[in-house]
Amino acid sequence: MTAETESSSSNTATKLPPGMVLGPDGKPCKICTSSAEWRNWKRNTTKKATHAEQSSSSSTSAATSGGASASAVAAAAALGTAVQSTTPQVECPPDVEQLGRATWTFLHTTAAYYPEKPTPTQRANMLSLLRSLPVLYPCSWCASHLKDNMASRPPDVSGRLGLSRWLCEQHNDVNERLGKERFDCSKTDERWKDGPSDGSCD
Ligand SMILES: Cc1cc2nc3c(=O)[nH]c(=O)nc-3n(C[C@H](O)[C@H](O)[C@H](O)COP(=O)(O)OP(=O)(O)OC[C@H]3O[C@@H](n4cnc5c(N)ncnc54)[C@H](O)[C@@H]3O)c2cc1C
């Protein structure tokens, strides 16, 4: 949820709009937001705080007494356009995109090497891994969508192909929400296990 859409939580089924994303506590959620948006928000709040400090000497402090959350939301609402992307420092904590890429890499690769005929224990472990994601995934906004999706389409842990297909569809659902192209699910092995037939990844 972004500051811009804070009051319309029914919008959560639609594409994630640009801007600062708020967590369940209504405060800006760093791990739910791209690093460019986060840095832009930090710059804006710093500027606003400086401006408020300067003007408070000649007026009442009412405008700045709404608490951290309210000022954060106001600053975030002032965003929306001009996000200034700067190159992140190396070894910075991940943002929503880096975390997403790393998680998808782990999940798709694990599915690609999952047994064709898993034992009951392997199935149970895979189910447990997948079911823990909506509970533990740090981007709460992402986790809540995943929870809804998994409720309507439960994980297929019957074997490698079924699991790869199920994950591909989950990922495509996120792609669609973010306005990205759908991935061709017949190419999951090529992407995550075998590499292209021209040998360019060998
Ligand atoms: C469970 C989960 C939920 C998420 N929810 C959100 C969200 O609500 N909002 C948000 O902003 N971000 C969310 N993300 C992050 C988002 O999905 C992306 O990871 C992030 O935006 C970076 O995107 P990217 O374009 O670099 O590629 P990614 O989407 O991370 O994909 C990485 C690579 O996977 C391959 N790929 C793409 N689609 C598929 C597919 N369907 N099947 C197999 N391989 C594929 C492509 O080669 C691609 O380069 C979520 C991530 C996860 C793991």
From TrEMBL:
It catalyses: 2 R'C(R)SH + O2 = R'C(R)S-S(R)CR' + H2O2. Signal peptide: none annotated. Residues 1-27, 43-65 are annotated as: Disordered. InterPro entries: ALR/ERV, ERV/ALR_sulphydryl_oxid_sf, ERV/ALR_sulphydryl_oxidase. Its EC number is 1.8.3.2. It comes from the Eukaryota. Residues 92-192 form the ERV/ALR sulfhydryl oxidase domain. Residues 1-14, 52-65 have a biased composition (Low complexity). This is Sulfhydryl oxidase.
